[in-house]
Amino acid sequence: MGSCCQTSQVVGDQYVFPDGGVYSGELKDGLPHGVGAISFENGSQFQGHFENGMKNGKGIFRWSDNSYYDGEFLNDAFNGYGEFYWSNGNWYKGQWIKGNMQGEGQLYSDGKTYKGEFENDKRNGKGEQTWPNRQKYIGEWKNGKMHGKGQLIESNGRVIEGEWVKGKKK
Prior knowledge:
The chain is mainly β. It has two domains: about 1-90, Histone H3 K4-specific methyltransferase SET7/9 N-terminal domain (Single Sheet); about 90-170, Single Sheet (Histone H3 K4-specific methyltransferase SET7/9 N-terminal domain), CATH 2.20.110.10. The protein has strands at about 10, 15, 20-30, 30-40, 45-50, 55-60, 70-75, 75-85, 90-95, 100-110, 110-120, 120-130, 135-140, 145-155, 160-165, 170. Strands 1-2-3-4-5-6-7-8-9-10-11-12-13-14-15-16 form a 16-stranded antiparallel β-sheet, with no helix packed on it. The termini are far apart. About 30% of the residues are buried.
């Protein structure tokens, strides 16, 4: 959304992106540069910083379904620290690289809370997840599943330690 890679035009003090997004704000050499905002026909909008026609620096992107991202951008992608809130109540707070959850972060999804490492939008590396029933897994993750050495603490306090493969105890 809001990319400047195709034909675009400047109309008065506004810049129109190829995808129909209308930008209002500071321009430099005919491109969005500095502080500004984009409004899209579908009701989505972005407010924040631009460099050479792209979202760069701090900004807030709001979708028409009330989901939003508040954080850092680099070349139009979520990059650096940011917080994403889905309209269903789920959220992620942490590091992003090229639009993907990557590095340290915390994810709340469907009553479960995970805190740890991410790679390509998935739990990967070391992390800890707590379920609504207070069961907890502390250990290694791969492709979003418990994988490697870990410890499952059941809600009754029973501890199961060992090796996990694709989400199952080995």
